[in-house]
C-alpha cells in the first residue's frame, strides 16, 4: 500500500512532492543538495526511478560522483533516460573521458541533445557520424555542434559542410564559424564576404560579436608548434606562418570592432597584431620576474597551448641547442628582447 501511495504521489500529484525533489524532476535549481538527498532517499529505498535519479543527482551536486553513479545507473536502467546526461557528467568529474563520452552520446540518442559529447570525445566514428547526421534532421543544432567539433580538430572542410547545414536552419553563429572556416581554408575573400554579409544583416552588436570571435580565434591559433616540429627549420617555418595569420586575424578583428564603434577593443586587437609584426621593437619576450626553473614541463606545455609565446621559447630551449638557436633568431627578428 505504501508503494502504491508513493506511485500515485509521483504520477498524479507532482506538485505535492517534497520541494527539492520536485525541483530536481522539473530541472529547477536545487539550492540544498543535502535536503534533496534526504527527500529522495525514501523514494529510492522503495525502488522508484525518480527517487534513484534525484538521490544520485544530490550526490552529484555534493561533488561525490562516485556515490552518484550507482543510483543514476539504476534510474537509467529503470527507464529514467535523462539520467544518461548526468552519468556523462559524473564520469567526466571522475576523469573517465571514455565513459563520459559513451553516456553523453547515449543521452543524444535518448533525445537529450547536449554539446558536451562533442567537447569530450576524441573521435567520432562513421557509425556515430551517420547517426548524428540523421538525428540532425529533428535536432538541427547537432549540425552546429558537429561543425564545432571538426573546426576544433582543424578539419575545416568538414566543419564548413556542417556549418552550412546549420545555416539552413537559421543558426547565426554558424555563419560566423563558416566565415572562419573559409578563412582557415585559405579562401579569405569569400570568408570576408561571408562575415561582412552577416554584419550587414544585423547591427553594431553583430559586428562586435564577429570581432570578438575572430580575436578569440587568433588567441588560440598556434597550438604550440615547437612540440610537433621535427626540425628547427620546420619550427621556424611554422612559427612564421602562425605569426602571419595571427597578425591578419587581429587586424581583421580590430576592423570589426571599429565598425561596432568600440575603439578601446579595436586598439587592444591592434596592439596584439603589433606583437606579431616584424616592426615590433624592444619588447621583452619573457615576463619580468619570471623564474624560468619554477615551471614544470607540463605547465609550460599548457601555457604554450594557450598562446604564451615565452612558454614556447622555453620549450624550444628544452628541445636542445638547435631549437633554442632557431627560436632566438626567430624572436629577435621580430624585435623581441630575450632575457636569460
Folded structure, characterized:
With 340 residues, the protein is mostly helical. The protein has 3 domains: 1-111, Tetratricopeptide repeat domain (Serine Threonine Protein Phosphatase 5, Tetratricopeptide repeat, Alpha Horseshoe); 125-203, Serine Threonine Protein Phosphatase 5, Tetratricopeptide repeat (Alpha Horseshoe), CATH 1.25.40; 223-340, no CATH class. Helix content is 70%, strand content 1%. It is built from 19 helices and 2 strands. It has helices at 2-12, 19-26, 33-45, 49-61, 65-77, 83-93, 97-109, 116-120, 126-135, 141-152, 156-168, 172-184, 188-201, 204-220, 232-259, 263-275, 297-305, 309-318, 321-333; strands at residues 283-284, 336-337. α2 (19-26) crosses α3 (33-45), α6 packs antiparallel against α7 and α10 (141-152) packs antiparallel against α11 (156-168). The longest helix has 28 residues, at 232-259. The model has no long low-confidence stretch (mean pLDDT 87).
The percent of residues in helical segments reads: over 70%
Question: What structural class should be given to the helix and strand makeup?
Answer: mainly alpha
Low-confidence stretches: none
- Count of the domains: 3
**Order of strands across the biggest sheet?**
1-2
Write down the secondary-structure element order: HHHHHHHHHHHHHHHHEHHHE
What radius of gyration results from the CA coordinates?
Answer: 26 Å
Morphology call: globular
Count the helices. How many? 19
Tell me the strand percentage band: under 5%
> How can the largest sheet be summarized?
2 strands, parallel
Q: Tell me the number of strands.
A: 2
Terminal Cα span: 79 Å
| Arithmetic mean pLDDT | 87
Amino acid at each position: 500500500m505504501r508503494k502504491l501511495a508513493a506511485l500515485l504521489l509521483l504520477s498524479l500529484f507532482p506538485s505535492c512532492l517534497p520541494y527539492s525533489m520536485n525541483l530536481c524532476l522539473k530541472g529547477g535549481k536545487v539550492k540544498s543538495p543535502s535536503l534533496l538527498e534526504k527527500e529522495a532517499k525514501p523514494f529510492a529505498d522503495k525502488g522508484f526511478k525518480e527517487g534513484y535519479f534525484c538521490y544520485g543527482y544530490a550526490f552529484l551536486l555534493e561533488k561525490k560522483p562516485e556515490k552518484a553513479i550507482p543510483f543514476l545507473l539504476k534510474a537509467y536502467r529503470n527507464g529514467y533516460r535523462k539520467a544518461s546526461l548526468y552519468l556523462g557528467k559524473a564520469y567526466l568529474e571522475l576523469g573517465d573521458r571514455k565513459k563520459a563520452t559513451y553516456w553523453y552520446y547515449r543521452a543524444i540518442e535518448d533525445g537529450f541533445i547536449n554539446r558536451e559529447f562533442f567537447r569530450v570525445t576524441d573521435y567520432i566514428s562513421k557509425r556515430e557520424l551517420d547517426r548524428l547526421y540523421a538525428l540532425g534532421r529533428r535536432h538541427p543544432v547537432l549540425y552546429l555542434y558537429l561543425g564545432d567539433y571538426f573546426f576544433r580538430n582543424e578539419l575545416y572542410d568538414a566543419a564548413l559542410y556542417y556549418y552550412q547545414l546549420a545555416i539552413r536552419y537559421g543558426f547565426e553563429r554558424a555563419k560566423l564559424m563558416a566565415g572562419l572556416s573559409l578563412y582557415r581554408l585559405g579562401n579569405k575573400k569569400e570568408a570576408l564576404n561571408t562575415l561582412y554579409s552577416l554584419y550587414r544583416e544585423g547591427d553594431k552588436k553583430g559586428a562586435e560579436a564577429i570581432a570578438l570571435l575572430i580575436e578569440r580565434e587568433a588567441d588560440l591559433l598556434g597550438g604550440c608548434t615547437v612540440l610537433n616540429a621535427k626540425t628547427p627549420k620546420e619550427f621556424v617555418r611554422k612559427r612564421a606562418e602562425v605569426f602571419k595569420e595571427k597578425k591578419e586575424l587581429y587586424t581583421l578583428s580590430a576592423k570589426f570592432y571599429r565598425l561596432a564603434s568600440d575603439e578601446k577593443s579595436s586598439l587592444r586587437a591592434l596592439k596584439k597584431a603589433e606583437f606579431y609584426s616584424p616592426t615590433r621593437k624592444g619588447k621583452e619576450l619573457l615576463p619580468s620576474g619570471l623564474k624560468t626553473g619554477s615551471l614544470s614541463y607540463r605547465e609550460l606545455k599548457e601555457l604554450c597551448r594557450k598562446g604564451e609565446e615565452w612558454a614556447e621559447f622555453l620549450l624550444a630551449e628544452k628541445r636542445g641547442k638547435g631549437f633554442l638557436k632557431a627560436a632566438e633568431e626567430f624572436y629577435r627578428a621580430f624585435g623581441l628582447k630575450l632575457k636569460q
